[in-house]
Amino acid sequence: MTIVSRDPRRFPLQFLALEPLARAALALLLALSLVVGVAAPRAALAAHGLALGGPPKYGPDFRAFEYVNPAAPKGGSVTMASMGTFDKLNPFTLKGVRAEGLSELVFETLTVMSLDEPMSAYALLARDMELAPDRLSITFRLDPRARFTNGDPVEAADVKHSFDTLRSKAASPMWRQYWADVKQAVVVDKSTIRFEFARRNRELHMIVGSVPVFSRKWGGGKPFDQVVQDTPIATGPYLIERVDLGKSITYRRDPNYWGADIPSRRGQFNFDRVHFTYFLDEFARIEAFKAGNFDFVQENVAKNWARSYYGRRFEDGTLVKTELENSNAQGMQAFVMNTRRPLFADVRVRRAVSLAMDFEWMNRQLFFNQYVRSYSFFTNTEMAARGLPSDAELALLEPFRAQLSPVVFSEVQPPPSTKPPSSLRENLREAKRLLGEAGWTYRDGALRNAAGQPFEFEILIAQRTFERVIAPFARNLEKLGIVARSRTMDSSLYKKRVDDYDFDMIVHWYLSSQSPGNELALRFTSQAADTPGSNNYMGVKSPAVDALVERILSVDSREELLTATRALDRVLLAGHYVVPHWFNRTWRVSYRNRFGRPQALPLYYSADDWFLMAWWSQPGGVPPAPPAAAQAPPGAPHSTAAN
To answer: I need a labelling partner for 550 at 20 to 30 A (CA). Which of 20, 136, 433, 487 fits?
Structure first.
């Protein structure tokens, strides 16, 4: 059961769009997966693209990416669904919730990542790029064809304005952390900009290519944090056509879009209109889809997938239900404990809470055995720590031995299990022992500390669908005398609480890759722990973690990267900051059978991103999937919308 909404798995720009919870740089992180090396190109030659670990897959004369159809027809419209609400058209400030679609449809970056390579960047707003031999700067020359939606040419001054604005206090503090090693942006001439780095970083030259660019005229000179509902002046393929604040937003394809025929955009963004409608209730969203109110859904809830996507329209091929394979790194989805709260300051308490979750029961009873347990902060990658630490890992860990748990230096333990010979009873007995060591004893009808305070906490969520997952977890905690309550909040209030670290526990997905980098500083370092709006939700403050993240950012070889990330994984796992969840390796999608799609799947992608980017309107659709996948399971509820 992947718990994030469709938002987190966007293109590189989305990482910086600051959506609630799990709004991390999925597209950037997915693009980092399975990289075969980390050495940067040494020659200072103007290039159409760059890659870590060797030359980019697509040469300077490439016509289009393989996972798109360069001859795809333009036209038609599509309606998508989003959960929650929105109150702003500026995706780059801390306050408020941005409208769906802004980052990927309206704003563009200097370069764009390929979805079928480990980590590569190809020219978009930039015509070409040149990395200095010492890797301390990179120069971008802008495409002279690039235009903002008001007709103005994109100039280096606009790029610098965008970069400087996003690093100012008017924008989210996450930007300043993300580009902390960028010394400055220098306008070389009208169409050339150079980014200078404070130190060598193996991927920083790739990261600065993801700077979103907007016009100096956007906002009419107002302070950037007051640019809230002003229509963006950007370069993307779509214009905002209509807004019903908090309820819906419609985008119209720009007939004068400057980049329609450049290689990194050819065959993409084929719909004339893209409309997002918002739902507050998950059941209403599903029924609206089956009734034909929107066209495509990437389903993240196992129960919904198993029991709700059936009926006449599936049987006659009007609606298609299928699963798309991907090679994405999975990271760590989990219940995240906020160690800023005294309740979770003790590692023994955190371990005890983790022992109360029975994944095997949940997977069997709630998820139709669709999932595998998450086991690492780098799940499904070779970055995950395994067995005993190697000599190379020990060399990094030994300087901090006095500060670290002995567990770090032993074999990596899997998450608690109830598979025989283990059992929930055995796990709860161990949890009771740990709680007792930490000063918690059962008396007067509750688990209490020495001061008599009961052990109670709140799990903050933004969607009610997760309540059914919290319920069995809370029942098991209750057997220890612990009271855990879920609290569902409006998405904007939820974001405010999370940004301010005003919570006991949340559900979060820490995305990962096989070439981790700057995102680790945003989620695990001491500096991030003290920065509101950062992703260090756990509140980790560890000199060992800080040093290991620093090491990861400065390594020169793949072997060194593997060593440092595995060592970091050991330290984080030993801290028991999270209660690990689960993952799967496919996207579950359903759609109205009126679209065409490319034959080749990307490798590292989100299905709904690929849909908006690469599919097209096609009357009659494609041959429907075998109807067996759409049959109602035994005991499934009746759906009037689908029958």
So the answer is: 20
Task: Write out the DSSP string of 149-196.
Answer: TTSPBP-HHHHHHHHHHHTSTTS-HHHHHHTTTEEEEEEEETTEEEEE
In terms of phi and psi (left: phi > 0; alpha: psi -120 to 50; beta: otherwise), the region of 552 is alpha
Residue that the structure tokens 């980019």 belong to: 56
Tokens of 519: 């995102």
Q: Report yes or no: 49 and 622 within 8 Å, Cβ to Cβ.
A: no
- Collapsed DSSP state (helix, strand, coil) of residue 354: helix
Whole-angstrom distance, CA of residue 455 vs CA of residue 440: 8
**Residue 421 preceded by cis peptide, ω within 30:** yes
Say whether 348 sits in a helix, a strand or coil: helix
Q: How far is CA 433 from the centre of its chain?
A: 37
How far is 389 from 412, CA to CA, in rounded Å?
A: 8
Q: Is 443 exposed, middle or buried (0-12, 13-18, 19+ CB in 10 A)?
A: exposed
Task: Check whether 582 has a pLDDT greater than 90.
Answer: yes
Structural contact between residues 547 and 400, judged by C-beta atoms closer than 8 angstroms: yes
Domains parsed from the chain with CATH numbers = 34-253 (3.40.190.10), 281-328+585-630 (no CATH), 332-583 (3.10.105.10)
State pTM to two decimals: 0.74
Cβ atoms within 10 Å of 432's Cβ, excluding its own:
19
Q: What does the alpha-carbon distance between residue 567 and residue 517 come to, in Å, rounded to a whole number?
A: 14
Q: What digits encode the pLDDT tens for the residues 287-343?
A: 999 999 999 999 988 889 999 999 999 999 999 999 999 888 889 999 999 999 999
Element (DSSP H or E) covering residue 80: strand 77-83
Please give the structure tokens belonging to residue 353: 């809470």
134-150 burial, b for 16+ CB within 10 Å, e for fewer? ebbbbbbbbbeebbbbe
Here the tokens at position 284 are 């209403």
Reported confidence tier of residue 282, pLDDT bands at 50, 70, 90: confident
Question: Cα angle vertex 25, ends 505, 209, to 5°?
Answer: 155
Q: Is the model's pLDDT at 27 over the cut of 70? A: no
Region for 331 from its dihedrals, namely left if φ exceeds 0, alpha if ψ lies in -120 to 50, beta otherwise: left
411 vs 598: CA distance, rounded Å: 45
Q: How far is CA 539 from CA 3, 43, 208, 466, 495, in A?
A: 22, 41, 27, 23, 17
Rounded CA gap, 162 and 158, in Å?
6
- Measured from the Cβ of residue 399, the count of other Cβ atoms closer than 10 Å reads 12
H or E stretch at 528:
helix 526-529
